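Below is one such record:
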Amino acid sequence: MPARAKAPKLALPVERRTLENGLRVVLSPDKSSPTVAVAVYYDVGFRSEPEGRSGFAHLFEHLMFEGSATLEKMEHARLVQGAGGTFNGSTNSDYTNYFEALPSSALELGLFLEADRMRAVRLNQETLENQIAVVKEEIRVNVMNRPYGGFPWIHLPPVMFSSWNNAHNGYGSFEDLEAASVGDAADFFERYYTPSNAVLAVVGDFEVDDAMQLVERHFDGIAGRPAPERPRFAEPLPVGEHRAVQHDAMAPTPAVALGYRVPHPILEFDDYLGTVVLADIFAEGRAARLYRRLVVERRLASHVSSYVGTFGNALEMRDPTMLQVLAYYAPDVEVDQILGAVDDVVGEIITGLEDEEVERVTTALASGVVARVDNFVQRALTLAGTEQQRDKPELINELPAKLFELDAKQVIRSAEEWVRPARRAVLELVPGAPS
């Protein structure tokens, strides 16, 4: 067998600073393109929402585009687009982020815009009611009126987890959303949207000293407040298999989602990477073991996928999280046939996984990391996220080599320790209304 290629090397410059108000800043200059990316991560996501306020982190993301300290509604969008840039934001389990891609000549504009909304958000009853209506319509479109809506990210966590923080619906219930007041929103901003609870990442065509002068010009004057205490998310490992059924009147065929707890994403990072590789061995590509077994050989399923994290975002998760396996199958197939095939494949991995198969997967994963962070926006998001959750933006350079270091023994250990029927959550999706 030919010798394995060396791990792709990344040597992206990473500069870290902290302002007096607590804002953490990560800079990565790159003159390969006359563009810049600006990203801000706030340490608040679905899991930080207080009980009775489900969906509030996502609702607040919408409100943050409705006006800031000096800008009226839609001014942010007008200024970015007028400069030839793009912008967006997202809410996840463990963060909310906002970002812009701009020509390098507009770097100060991007920094001003993010500082302006970190300084203050415009809140009134009309804006709040409007954005509650927008979020409710988003839920109707993406969850209530779509086949497999919310499957499995909304419905699998309460099967696996028991605490409010880990198990509740991050999109939010209509009752909780409608109960939100302007005062609640103001309190949320005051609590979570403080510089000491945020990370700013800037990537692209700039000089570090010049960029820091601009950062200080726009962010230094924002009053610092103590970062809120993060809720405790830890839960004991499950004892026994947990099962639940979700009915879906619009789904054409049944489906099943399996959840397996994984090692601590930060404290046990090498072991955690073993489960990330295992997920791809299961179902990434037509050569993957579960795909071959369920789709090609036995024709039990039409589609199979597997990933770690709420949305496959393995590097953006705190503990606890899951390795998930999804399968969509024909009505004449029993769910236990799917589960039996999964267990068979896990057993075969434990007894017969070779380094060559692991090398194929880790090479693809490492190459994917390099390709992804070649994009300035993705690089800024990665740097901000790894600083926010791990205090280690340098991980962006270390990750390809860490993946290459994994071997079959480590992945087998991950399968033996974590992918056990007695520890899994099983969510069966059944077409049709409940009887």
